[in-house]
Structures are given as structure tokens and as C-alpha cells.
Design goal:
alpha/beta, 14 strands, 17% strand, binds threonylcarbamoyladenylate, binds magnesium ion
Amino acid sequence: MREPTREAIAAAANLIVAGHLVAFPTETVYGLGADAANGEAVARIFEAKGRPRFNPLIVHVLDFEAARKLGRFSTLAADLAEAFWPGPLTLVVPRQENCEASELVSAGLDTIALRAPANPVAQQLLAASSRPIAAPSANRSGHVSATLARHVADDLGGSVAMILDDGATSGGLESTVISLASEPALLRPGAVPSADIERVLGKPLVRRQDDAGALTSPGQLESHYAPRAAIRLDADEVYPGEALLAFGDVLPGASGRVLNLSPRRDLVEAAAKLFAALRTLDAEGVSTVAVMRIPNAGLGEAINDRLQRAAAPRPAN
Ligand code: TXA
Ligand code: MG
């Protein structure tokens, strides 16, 4: 834990640029940050949090100009950014054509969640690193969000290179998450009241509810990227016409298209490449992908969760 002096923030920025994890304060809760453009650094966020699945992450930017390089803003989206940034509002928008953020921050979706935080330490870190910073709340999966640097140290101490200690966060409630990918929708209630947002929009937000009337969790609702190709798991041979998604030494006899998630059997590398690999094979029009067995330890659990969902029979539409 370090006090956020100029020197400490410069050192933290260097760590981000070098692909390490840095915990930093925002006006809501502490974030567990990594360079959003570095897939392996983003994969380490999931590893550190011990999340059994890949949820899309919020990418923090300094300002609207930086946000526009990553996401496409409609007039309404730009109005919300103008009204509430910097501040605790996260906007989910379509990814920009040449979006430099890793596909892992979007969990393979076509959208990206962006927010410009108001906390000065967070702003200085973004400015000093000149990087978009992916950051979920800095707690282990299933624990409550961290509002003190000590909470972060208790939960994640071993996996972060530095914790910038700015005392208690002023808010404590996470940012409000709004999707502008289609009709403006409330994905997560949070620090900005939805009525304030509706006033700027001039219309009510869509609220998606399950049968019991509860607001559906965006992580579950929005992250169903399913490849068009059929997926065959735990392959120990490759059939004619199949592409192979390999892990480690390529299966003998693979003669067609082969894409290797990690020749050195590194789960962080595999996690970083997973969504881009599925999209690449889809774009090539592959009909079936045989996937080699991936160990279920560490990040392997989240990788296998995603592959299993991709392999599950899905309703025709
Ligand atoms: O206040 C906050 O928002 C904190 C600070 C650190 O900024 N961050 C935070 O991140 O709470 P996290 O990862 O714990 O929550 C991100 C939320 C999740 O509900 C996630 O499903 C949603 O944002 N989300 C992120 N990207 C999305 C996307 N492309 N589509 C839909 N939902 C998305
Ligand atoms: Mg969280």
C-alpha cells in the first residue's frame, strides 16, 4: 500500500504499462486495474479475483475523447457522458471499429463498458499511464466491494503489484451501468440515480426483469456470445473438416486449420486469446471446432465455463 504521491502514481503507471495489476481508488469503490489493451494483463484480473467465469469489465478512461477511441457514441450516449462524466456512470456502447481494448474486457461481446472516474488519483493514474484501464471492483469474487485499501490488501494482496491508498472511497456504491447498444437500458442501479439519467434522456430507461420481477444481472444477461461454429470439447483427435483449437502440443494428425491458445500451456495466455480465437474461426466460416482438453485449475475454470456454454445446444433463431 502506498500513499498516492506523484512518485507513487508514476510508479503505478509504469506497472500498468508493463502489464501488472494495480489497485486504485475511484469515487465509488477500489478498482483492480490493468492495461485494457493487454489481453494477458486483463486475464490476470480474472485470475486474481478468482472469478469462475468471464464477465465483461468496465474500462476506465480519462475523458470523452479517450472513450470515443474505444466505443461508438450515439447522440444520446454522448449526452449522458457530457452530463455525468467524470463520475460514477458506466456507459455500455458498441465497440469502435479499431478498438484497441482486448476482447476479453468485453467477454467476447460487440460492446464495451466505459467510464471516466472523478477521483483525482484515478485520473492521475490514467493520465500518467496514457492507457485505458480495465478494472472491476477490487475484491475476490463473491466478496463485497472494497472501499478501503486495506480491504484490497486482505482480499488480493498477493496478486497486485501496488495498491494506491487514498483512504475511504467517498461513494461506496458502484457506478450505475446503462446500456446504449439498443434502447437505453438500466443494467445495474448504482451511484447515479436512474431518475437523473432519465431526465437527461427525456424518456424512461428500459428495465429488464426476470419472472420474479428482479432486475436481471447484466453479467448473465449480456455475456452470451455464442460462436456460429459447432464446438466439440475435450477432443483427442481431429475429424476431417474440423478446425482445431489447440492447447499445448498440437494433436498428431491435425491437418486442417489450427489455432493454438497457448503452445506453452499457459492459462493466462489462453484466456487472453480465447474470444479472439473463436471470432477468427467464425469469421473464416469454420463449421466445427474441436477443442483440446484444458485443465480446470485457476483460469481454466473460466475458460472451460465459456467453452461449455459455447458448446451447449442453443435455440435456433
Ligand atoms: O463503480 C464501479 O463501477 C467499479 C469501479 C472500480 O469503477 N467497478 C465495478 O466493476 O463495479 P465490476 O466489474 O465489478 O462491474 C461491472 C459491471 C458488471 O455488472 C458487468 O456485467 C457490467 O458492468 N458490464 C461490463 N461490461 C459490460 C458489457 N459490455 N455489457 C453489459 N454489461 C457490462
Ligand atoms: Mg463487483
